[in-house]
Fold this protein.
Amino acid sequence: MFHKMIFALALAGVATGVAEAQTAPAPLPVPFPNAPQTGAPAPQAPGQPGGANPQQQGELVVDVVGGVSAPLGIAIPVMPTSDVVNTPAGRTDQLGQQLAQIVTTDLRNSGLFKPLDSGVKPVLFPEVTAPTFDYWGGAGASALVQGFIRANGDGTLTVGCYLYDVTSRAELARQGFVVPPSEWRRAGHKCADMVYSKLTGEGPYFDSRVVYVSETGPKGKRIKRLAIMDQDGGNHRFLTNGQAIALTPRLSPDQRSIVYMSYVEDRPAIYVYDIESGRQRLLVPNTNLTFAPRVSPDGKWVLFSMAVGGNTDIYRVPFNGGTPQRLTDSPAIDTGGTYSPDGSRIVFESDRSGTQQLYVMNADGSQQQRISFGSGRYATPVWSPRGNLIAFTKIGGSFRIGIMSPAGGNEQLLTDGAQDEGPSWSPNGRVLMFFRSSGGGNGRADLWSVDLTGVNVRRVPTVLDGSDPAWGPLRP
Amino acid sequence: MAKLTTSLLIGTALFTAACAKKPPAVIPPPPGQSVVDPNAGQPSIAPGSRADFERSVTSNTVNFALDSFSLDDRARAILDSQAQWLTRYPNVPVSLEGHCDERGTREYNLALGDRRALAAKNYLAARGVAPGRISTISYGKERPIALGSDEASWAQNRRAVTIVLN
């Protein structure tokens, strides 16, 4: 099913002349229906992204399974404002520039779009819903994203986002987002998600966060801090002060907590960190080494590893605490357990065969079965949110990121770094974030991403160095 | 001191040098006696202290083969010297730190470091050191002692280190 996923573009329906611009242009930017809650986008997505087959409608489409391999030319001019107003997030005209930049960066980083580098002219406010298609076509854009920003009387901001097919001169999608000033960047990510979903048919992923381990200092005495940021590196925040080593964080499905491992009081163990209050609690109050925490998709369990008398097995414990329940009992090292998206199965690594290999089992620990049989060792398995792939670290001289089916077939290696480790899936299952270490005394680790083609490899910007990225779900 | 064969002593000396642990410039006095340093400002070494341990034992560190937690002859000889000292000071608690090289993944190495610390602990316990005195902590690959990415550095980083806790 997923042999070689070649991302490509197809401009479908160009000749059909479907959109002779008979549909009247949308009215001037008017207030979108107000969102019921601050922070929630206004609910009026036209159609469901990825639902219908856009090709049949003769629309612009980014084909992700075959075709010509070249990113789609897209123009994203600065989003004008009807009225320049100072807000806690900045002046609305400056926010309009930054929003266009966020959309541009998101779409470019997906590897599927090529935002115009030049010829992006300013857009007047009334032009947002009446694009100058001839101009954009001449500038080399197949698609056009226009929008506006407006400060509302109640202190919120409204961001409108419109997607056009330049060739057919048709509006493809529009959405409005009402956000508090503190979350203005999310409106940009939501806009990019709308464009991405509409043109690729894939699920959105830009409006999401990443927890990771921020690293700094000499190799033998690295300071490792828990940190959280937006998927693109924005809104970066340190959560721990670095006095104790922090490792292997994971966001809970409700995104309110982070499970991670801390060396606080020289007792390495798993803690549950509450993001809002900054308080944390020990997950399993005993003296054993506990590590490798992962929360179940329903949020009710934490899967983890515990070393008892030198034997590491996989256990689960209720998220709110309780008695750990042992799921594996091999005398080998069993660790890295991760749930399938429906919570019914677990993939984990074990060296019971002599070297680290991948195994799957039912959520209660029954029916353990090896799935990796290639040369080398396999570690850090993680189940795709779509359920159809398992990503892992392949150890064979170097460390590389790879994918295989949950039955163990169709293995593909996606990266070629010397030391790439610890993949984590984007919410839509099309991109993996991981960390890449460089060797030697000045060795450091940084966050990188790669998509399923293995072609689009990018460094993820962080304030300091970084490791152990864990990509959270799409934000509500 | 432990009665070691000549070859072991040579091996130990080589090993010690490789670890960049300089032998004391002056031959230490017999254990059990504190040293009053003639130079003001230099602390004396109290019997039963961490410094006393580290100058008395063959090494505070044992090393392991790749992806292994078994103790070879050299490691056992080193632990024998540690057990002797620990028997002499039966009230001193120690911590055993388990470490790995960078060629394993982070979580796996936490488990492997735990196994190495426990292997050393169990050996000391078999030599008569009360297990209740020995705590263990795994650092995985998070605290390398040699910073290179080469065989020699990796060999040094695969280790269990005995730390006197006082």
